[in-house]
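User: C-alpha cells for both sequences below?

Assistant:
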Amino acid sequence: MSLDLTLESGEEIRFLNRISSTVRQLLRRTHFTTRELEAILLIYYKLLKDEVGHGGRGQPRFITRQQFTTVFDTVLGMSDSVMIGRIHAALDKGASSFVTMETWALAMSLFLRGTFEEKIRYCFQVYDIQKEGIIRRDHMMLLLKNATIKHQEEDSEEAVKDLVDIILHRMDLDRDGSISFQDFSETVRRSPELLECFGQALPDRRKVYAFAITFLEKVHKF
C-alpha cells in the first residue's frame, strides 16, 4: 500500500529503498514504528522536492532552516522566529543553515511522541542560550522580554524583572542566582506547568494532534 498518493509508486519505492538503513538506525532513537518513520521521512523528501520546484539546482541533500521554520509556523502553530532560532540550535547542536533527515526525524519524535523527561531536557536546552548548562538571570530577562504587555517601556522592564524574581524563587533551588538543569528538572517534575516558563518551546498540542493523525498508526488525544 502506498504511503503517499501524491508520489508515483516507483519514485516512492526507490526512496524507501534508499533510506532503509537510515530507518533501521532511527528506529533505535525515535518513538516511531518502521512505517511511521517511512512516512515522516517521505514528508522530508517532499520538502526537498519543493525546494527544487522553487528554483533549487538539482536535488538538494537537506532541507533548509527556512523550510523547517515554515513547518513550525504552518503545521505546528509556532511563529516566534526568535524562539524558533533557539529551537533550531537546541535540536541541531550547530549553526548550519540546513536540517538533516536525522534531525528532522528526532525532532518529530520529540514533538509527537516524546516522553516528559525528553521534553524537560529539550526545553532546558532551548532556554540555555549560551550552552553553559545554566540559565542566567540576564538570559531569563531576554527570554521573557516579550512575555509582558508593553504599555510603557519602563513598566515592561519592571514587569519582566518581577517575573524573573518569581521564577527564580520557584526554580533556583540552590539559591546561586541561576537555574541549573537539576534546578529546572526537579522543579518541573513537581510543577509541570513550568515546563515552558520561558516561552513556547513545544508545538501547539491541537496542531500536533491534527498533524499526527495524518500518518501515525496510533495517536493519543492531548
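Moving on to the next sequence.
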Amino acid sequence: MVRKLKFHEKKLLKKVDFINWDVDNNVHEVKVLRKYRIEKREDYTKYNKLSRNIRDLAQKIRDLDEKDGFRAQSTHQLLEKLYSSGLIPTKQNLSLTEKVTASSFCRRRLPYIVVKLRMAQNLKTAITFIEQGHVRVGPEVVTDPAFLVTRSTEDFVTWVDSSKIKQHVLNYNEQRDDFDMVE
C-alpha cells in the first residue's frame, strides 16, 4: 500500500516528465518555451532543427569557391528567403545566418507579432485572442498561435470584422461606424 501524496509532491510530479526526463535538463529550452509561451515542445524542436539546417547550408555555401557563380546565386536565394521570412534583419551577407536560432522563429509567431503591433498587452492575452478567433492575417482567420508571419503578411494582421474586441477599440477611439458593423 502506497501513502497518499502531499500537495507539494503532486505539484512536483506535474512538472516532471518521466518518459522524456533526460531531455528535460535543457535549461535554455525551458527558458525559450516560457518566454515565447510555446505550448508544444515539438514546435521548439522543429525551429531548432530548421535553424541548424540553415546554418549548415550557409556553411556549405561558404565552403564553395568564391569565383563560382552558383555560390553567388545560392547566397542571394538563401538571404532573400531568410529576409522575406523575417529571420534576418538585412540581406547584406551570409554571416547573418549564424544568428538564426529557434528564438528567431519564435519571434515570427503570430502572438509575438500581435504584441509587437500593440493589439495585445502580453503574449498570454495575444494567444487567447488568436485561439478565440479574433485575429486574421489577410482574409484568413487564424486560430493557431504557431502560425509564422512573414514580412509581407505582417502588414495584414488585424482584427476580424465581427470581433467584439475590434468594436470595443473603435468605440474607445470614437471611430466606430455603424455601417461597417452591420452584417
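User: Anything stand out in the second?

Assistant: Residues 27-105 form one domain.
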